[in-house]
Please model this.
Amino acid sequence: MKDQISALMDDELDLDDSAHLLTAIKSDGELGHCWSNYHLIGDAMRGTGMFKPDFSQRLMQKLEAEPTVVAPRSKRKLAQRPVLWSAAASVAAVMFVGWMVLQQQSHSGADVATQQIAQNVPSEYLLAHQALSPSSSAYYIQPATYTENGQ
Amino acid sequence: MRRFLLGCLLAAPLSVAVAGQDKSDESWTLLEKAARAAHELSYKGIFVYQSGPNTKSVQITHMNYGQGEYARIVMLDGSPREVLSQGNDVVIYSPRHEKVVIEKRHGQNLFPALLPTNLDAIKTSYQVRLGGIERVGGREGQVVFLDPRDRYRYGYKFWTDRENGLLLKAMTTNERNDTLDQISFNQLTLMNTQAMDWFQPTVEHDKPYVMEEQQARLATTAISDEWILAQLPPGFHKVDQVKRMVPGKSMPVNQLMFCDGLASVSLFIEQLSKDAHGKTGRSSQGPTNFYSNVVDGYQIVVVGEVPEATISLIANAVSFKK
Amino acid sequence: MIKTKDFAEFLRLSFVDTTMQGYTPTVKKTQSVSISSMVGNREIDQELVERAQRGDKRAFGMLVEKYQRKLGRLLSRMIRDQAEVEDVVQEAFIKAYRALPNFRGESAFYTWLYRIGINTAKNYLVAMGRRPQVINEIEIEDAENFEDGNELRTMDTPETELLGKEIAKTVNDTVASLPEELRTAITLREIEGLSYEEIATLMNCPIGTVRSRIFRARETIAQNLRPLLDTPQDKRW
Model:
């Protein structure tokens, strides 16, 4: 069941199969903890910060006191993945010039220590560039893979 | 030199200007012919790539009899790597230790197919100039220059075969007219046979052939929610964008590729984990320039066969959303 | 390992269609972008909202578990005092619950919740006689993707700070010690926000394997969190 909760929270479970799961999450203590713990884990990885441990409990007590909302049943919208960006828009977005003011961020030497690179062009980037690169004669002198250098 | 030439064209009386225009059209036509010839003709030969102290000799066989393009490229120096291509599918055979690894690529335009068949993109960024006749590898070559319109790309000198139109030689030069690299046929003949028995790898047959471990890539057109690219150098367009996993790194690397029709540049953006050491520095190798920097906890790397000014512009155009 | 000297066989091996995309002379055709990484799981949210709209308060509670900290982090940019942030977030959820009949699902639930949160915070500051801080860069449409990486302020009060730090440390230490394939899978999901399909492509494995790896990663971390979370307060409601 818990693995289903894991998939459900990522929207990777068919909702038609989930009705029993949602009921179980609310009624069974351990599965309810599973839902809240898994979300806690994601938030902790993203560094969101924590509330007091009884946050949910206090909130739900307040909600119990609220009049129960019953809204007209809305039709479930079919799962649609609308195309958000056309190719042209995505290219334009990358290419737009000027309208957004940007402060050039000076690199934060404080957080991440930097080290100088060796004189040669690092082969992993060169290889990745050449692999996509439309017409680079320099391809002929590249090392075979990033794990080897030279021929 | 180029500004002087432009000035001449502008100041000259109309008839000379028209003649200049004709020459320019003729030059573009030569380049178009060279671009098509590389795909349409059947030829074989040996060419040499040279950059600084590095040279590599390469044997090429290319055939097209209306059934699609087939080509085989063999490295004659060092490790005997071979490339077999059918249309846009490219397969590389590399002997590695006790096996031969097969790698797949897609649509690379290698010499002599350096030029795209549609030159419109190039025309906005380069000016063309007709040169003289020079012999290359025993054949007569018509020189055509591609002069960059700005400092964001290199200049090129092409020699096109006067008989069949193919590129015989190509040279990349910087603003000081230094040669950064060159690639040139020592031998070149057209083929009249249709036999295809040459189209197989000859690399170390006694070793097992093994598919490379696919470094899976996720092609994406999504606008990033983490970073913004404020501008691109004039004439450059995005032609590819992928997210890929790289062995040894836990976060995927974003790679964007930009091209002005001839030269290309890759931009890599990776999020660094908290205790990772980023790398900074500049480097160059022949025509390839490289720059890496750390900004806001991200590693930015820019690599390409373009001048340093282009690399810097792209690198400085990246900023991260707060 | 594949042994072949046969011309036909290597042709088959070599020129089988590959998923790798290389240079194309024109910009790629339109691709639909996976929504789940962008707008935060619309389907499960929509399901929970609809259940809440039919009177199921506990379904609303599941949304609270999911979004409380995310909303808190956003509002802590407007309200300095972190104890107040907690109160305002509670207030925002109550307001959202009351406004449920007005939510039709045109936007993502979190976008709608976020707007309510901002307004609640503004009203709170005005009622306290303080000028609401102006947030210029946050567009409503960005809300779904908004993750401020190096935020200086935290939401923690002194009471929560210690527990919060312990939780974060336990989570991140466990993640770091996971086997590589589990660590990669959970990172791509939680940090990069990729769908299972996208992760499967990048990790070159079946989607079922992705699902299993993410689950095993979560369960391992949850085990390590158990001692920290078994507090006297009963989380059941």
Q: What stands out?
A: Residues 149 and 183 of chain C are 20 Å apart (CA to CA). The radius of gyration of chain C is 23 Å.
